[in-house]
Automatic annotation (TrEMBL):
Protein name stated in the entry: Sarcosine dehydrogenase
Lineage of producing organism: Eukaryota, Metazoa, Chordata, Craniata, Vertebrata
Organism: Rangifer tarandus platyrhynchus
Domain FAD dependent oxidoreductase central: 431-486
Domain of life: Eukaryota
Family annotation (InterPro entries): FAD-dep_OxRdtase, FAD/NAD-bd_sf, FAO_M, GcvT/YgfZ/DmdA, GcvT/YgfZ_C, GcvT_C, GCVT_N, TrmE/GcvT-like
Protein family: Belongs to the GcvT family.
Chain spans, region Disordered: 1-42
Length: 919
């Protein structure tokens, strides 16, 4: 038997050159015996022993059907949960194919922890659903105990900021009825007597957290699913996916091949864990994940540990899971081991633990529960797990192949997220959309140029793994996988002090820094794998300053940009926008169906509109500009017959919008083309009272209200270059966007900056856009406007052609909502006290929590914090205007409530005078 401290000594002796992880010094320990090499999972029962070993050789556990409505590939947590939820939705003839036996991939050796609170409202709901399934539903349905243990969870805060983060989680938990308590060190000691609390600021205790059992969970899921008509076939590896091309040239799933026969099916779900990449390749689908070793060790018995909650010590990057009368100790390292050659022969397998890597956790574990120093290690559990570039799963229909869904890449959270994600995936398959807003998990959140870029996937997945336990700060940015997509102004703006943000692979301006340049440097893996860690460089330094829940030190720099825009003019480079053309004989029919607003105006018009799903949820918002037909192609318009529209959509939503539009065109068989010109065109936007005077000096066009009214566009010359000018605003000012071919961007920009100097024109970035747009009450897709929000709930009824008779996608759902009354409504709030808010704060109305903040920022012109969130009536009735107006509101931030004023109209320029040039 080795003990944790002896293990540490062993490693110290054998690896003398290993440098400690930043911030954690190894104690000088004398050489000692090496650690245990015993590998075994700590579960009483696994499915490895459930059948005899020769079963695989005998072939599939059941005969294969010739057809199936859905084939789920993989019998781990995700496959079983998806099958169960498909069956619950009434899908008959769904089949799960497992290469070996259920759980034999990663699931059998999971630690199985379930924590209910995460800094995302959607994730909190997904986790709550898993908890309901394993703690209640499955037992009710099957009579089997899943092995769920509710021993509670304890998050450790070793710094004030960490405690602030936990308090944010506590406020969000109130919205969803999740009990949690911030405990002092003394209270923590009383709850967990074996814990060292000397160095604690406090803890967050969540009594209804717990632990899942993999075999019990998957057996119950399979039993419940088969009772509802689904089939589970083990010992049946999938060897190929057949694809057909339909009459419109669209690739669709046709069948699944195995050595034992073929199953015809229109729908496949790839739940193959670390093998999902291989299954994707069978279908020509890119699956951006990497496989890594992930581990925990199981201790010998510890007197007094029974019934203790599970512990997450984020600052030490370590967790302590209760394992009967012992603990499992695991965590996230800065140098995880990549599993380079994923073997398809690996079933119920474990790797040898690399103690050099794992030792990083030992000191933190011993520090937190000192008795561990003298406790032996019974066994080690090191298995494969898949990790993705942003530490979020990969879900939804693959853009490359209709009928091929992903349910993989679970980043060591596939047990706790399994139920919620299985439910959403089932809904996605059956109804065409998940019920919740799953954009953060949707494969379409990544640009297609990145999803098979191995360096990008590897770097980003490494950083996301290494930072898994880091505080989630509102304005953090990745350091890995940067500079993948840059626009023609990149170098120029960098030289002018631009501090970039990364979205969708693009580098876009965040804000401008007066003291020198701040380039993003190549990724240093935080010093792992022999890379030299960069200690002090401008971008890293500025980013570190963002690591706060207070106003960052450069708050004033963003303020200057905002006030310049309101008082004179600001130049925004928005080149990362998605820019598409929708053209062809059926383009008008397609536009009528796709867009909630009436875009069939004369050529030259530009319309702000939403795109909806059949539930009336908002799949995107964009501007649609009707084009005059032209036989000649130019960089600013393709040649087309029939009708043509130019679509401009926020860059972070570009792939999502592209895929949504493409799927609708395919499903409705519209004869038109969608052309992506995002990389060919740049987008400059000059906004503010002085914008007209500045632009007039550079553009060969009359910019008067009569000649160039709001919401119109024209091809004009700017500094001698042909551009498409649009009179529009994302910030609530008089202003124009110039959509220019790549080579024209820099000369047009330079001419504008020269002309603007005397008018006070400044460069401004997206941090200013965020503040200015919230001040004006403009929505931001995927923050205060999402796929689970209807435009009526979001106060965007003006974007819906409900008064016309034109049918459009989502119309019926909106009409139903209108008839029944809105069950939720987006409200704006202002807070008089100068307190920063970022979203997730709880909204109180007359002493009851009625919602949470989706988006918040500081508005510099009104000099107040602004917040937007949806509220409900706790009685369950519609949220009437009377209900809204009769309430007294407060916003709870980190456990403290602040009085707030509710606004149905934007508090800034409520009559929209400024966009019309009325100052
Ligand atoms: C050490 C460790 C600790 C963890 N701790 C936690 C935790 O505390 N909480 C938590 O929520 N998560 C945890 N996880 C993560 C969690 O266990 C995984 O995310 C989850 O089990 C993954 O499930 P899955 O269904 O995606 O993959 P898997 O369980 O790997 O299932 C995929 C299945 O697909 C099958 N398959 C592959 N190829 C084919 C093919 N061609 N045909 C048919 N079948 C195929 C495989 O045999 C396998 O059974 C942990 C992971 C590890 C490694």
């Amino acid at each position: 038997m080795a003990s944790l401290s002896r293990a540490l000594r062993g490693v110290a002796a054998t690896c003398p050159r290993r440098s400690p992880a930043p911030g954690r010094a190894l104690r000088p320990l004398a050489a000692g015996a090496g650690p245990t090499s015993e590998k075994s999972v700590p579960y009483q029962r696994t499915l490895k022993e459930a059948q005899d070993a020769s079963a695989a050789a005998r072939g599939p556990s059941q005969p294969l059907p010739s057809t199936a409505s859905v084939v789920v590939i993989g019998g781990g947590s995700l496959g079983c949960q998806t099958l169960y939820h498909l069956a619950k939705l009434g899908v008959s003839g769904a089949v799960l194919l497992e290469r070996e036996r259920l759980t034999s991939g990663t699931t059998w050796h999971t630690a199985g922890l379930l924590w209910q609170l995460r800094p995302s409202d959607v994730e909190v709901e997904l986790l709550a659903h898993t908890r309901r399934v394993v703690s209640r539903d499955l037992e009710d349905e099957t009579g089997l105990h899943t092995g769920w243990i509710q021993n509670g969870g304890l998050f450790i805060a070793s710094s004030r900021q960490r405690l602030d983060e936990y308090k944010r989680l506590m406020s969000l938990g109130k919205v969803y009825g999740i009990e949690s308590h911030v405990l002092s060190p003394g209270e923590t000691k009383a709850l967990y007597p074996l814990m060292n609390v000397e160095d604690l600021y406090g803890t967050l205790y969540v009594p209804h957290d717990g632990t899942m059992d993999p075999a019990g969970t998957c057996t119950s899921l399979a039993r419940a699913a088969t009772a509802r008509g689904a089939q589970v076939i083990e010992n049946c590896p999938v060897t190929g996916i057949r694809v057909r091309t339909d009459d419109f040239g669209v690739r669709r799933v046709a069948a699944v091949e195995t050595e034992f026969g073929c199953i015809q099916t229109p729908c496949v779900v790839n739940c193959a864990g670390v093998w999902a990449g291989a299954v994707g390749r069978m279908a020509g689908v890119k699956v951006p994940l990497v496989a890594m070793h992930h581990a925990y060790v199981v201790t010998e018995r510890i007197e007094g540990i029974q019934n203790m909650p599970n512990v997450r010590d984020h600052d030490a990057s370590v967790y302590l899971r209760l394992q009967g009368d012992a603990l499992s100790v695991g965590g996230y390292e800065t140098n995880p081991i990549f599993w380079e050659e994923v073997s398809d022969k690996f079933a119920f397998g474990l790797f040898d633990l690399d103690w050099d890597v794992f030792t990083q956790h030992i000191e933190g574990a011993i520090n937190r529960v000192p008795v561990l120093e003298k406790t032996g290690i019974k066994s080690t559990v090191c298995g494969p797990e898949s990790f993705t570039p942003d530490h979020k799963p990969l879900m939804g229909e693959a853009p490359e192949l209709r009928g091929f869904f992903l349910g993989c890449g679970f980043n060591s959270a596939g047990m706790m997220l399994g139920g919620g994600c299985g439910q959403q995936l089932a809904s996605w398959i059956v109804h065409g959309r998940p019920e919740k807003d799953m954009h953060s998990y949707d494969i379409r959140r990544f640009h297609h140029s990145l999803t098979d870029h191995s360096r990008w996937i590897r770097e980003r997945s490494h950083e996301a793994y290494a930072k898994n336990y880091s505080v989630v700060f509102p304005h953090d940015e990745p350091l890995a996988g940067r500079n993948m997509r840059t626009d023609p102004l990149h170098e120029e703006l960098l030289a002018r002090g631009c501090v970039f943000q990364e979205r969708h692979g693009w580098e876009r301006p965040g804000w401008f820094h007066a003291q020198g340049t701040a380039p993003v440097l190549p990724y240093d893996y935080y010093g792992a794998y022999g890379h030299r860690a960069r200690e002090d460089y401008a971008y890293g330094r500025l980013l570190r300053q963002e690591h706060t829940f207070r106003f960052p030190p450069h708050h004033d720099a963003i303020k200057k940009e905002c006030l310049a825009c309101r008082g004179a003019a600001a130049m925004f480079n928005m080149s990362y926008f998605g820019k598409f053309y929708l053209v062809g004989p059926d383009a008008r029919k397609a536009a009528d169906w796709l867009f909630s607003a009436d875009v069939s105006r004369p050529p030259g018009s530009t319309v702000y509109t939403c795109m909806l799903n059949h539930r009336g949820g908002t799949e995107g918002d964009l501007t649609v500009s009707r084009l005059a037909p032209g036989p000649q192609a130019s960089p600013l318009a393709p040649a087309f017959e029939g009708d043509g529209y130019y679509l401009a959509v926020g860059g972070a939503a570009a792939q999502h919008s592209w895929s949504h539009i493409s799927a609708v065109l395919q499903d409705r068989k519209f004869r038109c083309q969608l052309i992506d010109s995002s990389e060919d065109l740049g987008l400059l936007s000059v906004q503010g009272p002085a914008s007209r005077a500045i632009l007039q000096e550079v553009m060969e066009a009359d910019l008067s209200d009569e000649a160039f009214p709001f919401s119109t566009h024209k091809l004009v010359r700017a500094a001698g270059h042909l551009v498409r000018a649009m009179r529009l605003s994302f910030v609530g000012e008089l202003g124009w966007e110039l959509h220019a071919p790549g080579p024209s961007c820099l000369p047009v920009y330079q001419a504008l900056m020269t002309a603007g100097a005397k008018h006070g024109l400044v460069n401004a970035g997206y941090r200013a856009i965020d503040s200015l747009s919230i001040e004006k009450g403009y929505r931001q897709w995927h923050a205060d406007l999402r796929a689970d929000d209807s435009p009526l709930e979001a106060g965007l009824a003006f974007t819906c052609k409900l008064k016309s008779s034109i049918p459009f996608l989502g119309r019926e759902a909106l009409e139903k909502q209108q008839a029944e009354g809105l069950r939720r409504r987006l409200l704006g709030f202002t807070v008089d006290q100068k307190v920063p808010m970022f979203g997730l704060e709880a909204i109180w109305r007359n002493g009851q929590v009625v919602g949470h903040v989706r988006r918040a920022d500081f508005g510099f012109t009104i000099n107040k914090t602004l917040a937007y969130g949806y509220i409900r009536d706790p009685s369950g009735g519609p949220v009437s205007l009377d209900f809204v107006k009769s309430g007294d509101y407060a916003l709870e931030r980190m456990g403290v409530t602040y009085t707030a004023q509710a606004h149905l109209k934007s508090p800034f320029d409520p009559d929209n005078k400024r966009v019309k040039g009325i100052y």
